[in-house]
Task: structure prediction
Amino acid sequence: MRGLLASFLILAAALAAGQARGAEAEEEALGRGIEAAAAGRYEEALGVFGRFAGRHPAQPEGHFFRAAVYQLLKGHFDLPAYRRGLEESLARALEAAGGIMRREPGDARAHFFAGLAHGIRAVEAMNEYRYLDALLDGRRMVALLERALALDPGLTDAYYALGVYRVRRAQVFWLRPFLGEDLAGGIGMLRRAAEGGRWLGALARVDLVWALYREERYDEARRELAPLAARYPGHPLYALARAEGYFLQRDYPKARAEFAALREKLGGRADRFSRFYGRFAQWRVARCDFALGRFAEAGSAAREVMEAPDMNSSLLRQVRLGAADMLDRIEKESAGRRNEGG
Result:
């Protein structure tokens, strides 16, 4: 009997150890996907999260992270496949998290991922001018994430979405007098997630940088951005974000130099992300030249930007409209000078 009991205990211990190793392996898989996404390797990230979702269809993690990557891709190129992937992955994440919460009301991770999924829905609703939907999903996000933190105060990543929510509300100009404390609290939440987040630390740091830019705290923003630029030197997003800070600061010579260097670095690459970031960098070079009074150089770059394809990007469509407006202004400026000289 003692031998049978000992065998049972050994088997139980082995199973527990195997489950722990399995859980660690799954966390490592999520980590690989998150690292790939942070480095700009989005297709690789989709593959990692897709395989995770295939192994664990009743868990929200794989579905949510696929949705997050599709949202990033859609932010670059507004393609039907990305929109469809985003909507389907979000629906599956919410279904999986909802099922867990019904069975286990105290499951913090299910509340966390459900809250993040509602956060993505709120952002998409705002982008589509569906403000009531955005408000309702935003409130659901806050309630779920606050519940997740109450259940597990160690879920530091929850502060990322809560911080973004507070910062964006507080940076609406007419709300500013009423939500000043929310702004400071939101920036603090973003910093907390950036420094201690398990999954969303890189995203939190990027949003922290943009929040600091909007507050004209440029040196502080550059210090926060530096770790990402050092860790992911191959991803042009972080170099572009650094250059954008100088542009917003109206340090046009410095901004122009950094955008021009990025444009040159990306010029020999054929992939669509390099062309996307290179085109935007070229537009910023034109904007800097215009601000510095170098109208011939600005006009040449703006014309090239205007005539380039928009790559199914809403951002590049806006850039092309801006380039056309710049060319019109340069022409009017030139006509005015000719009239004065005549």
User: Anything to note?
Assistant: Residues 1-21 have pLDDT under 50 and may be disordered. Residues 1 and 160 are 54 Å apart (CA to CA). The domain at 239-342 is CATH 1.25.40 (Serine Threonine Protein Phosphatase 5, Tetratricopeptide repeat). The chain is about 80% helix and 0% strand.
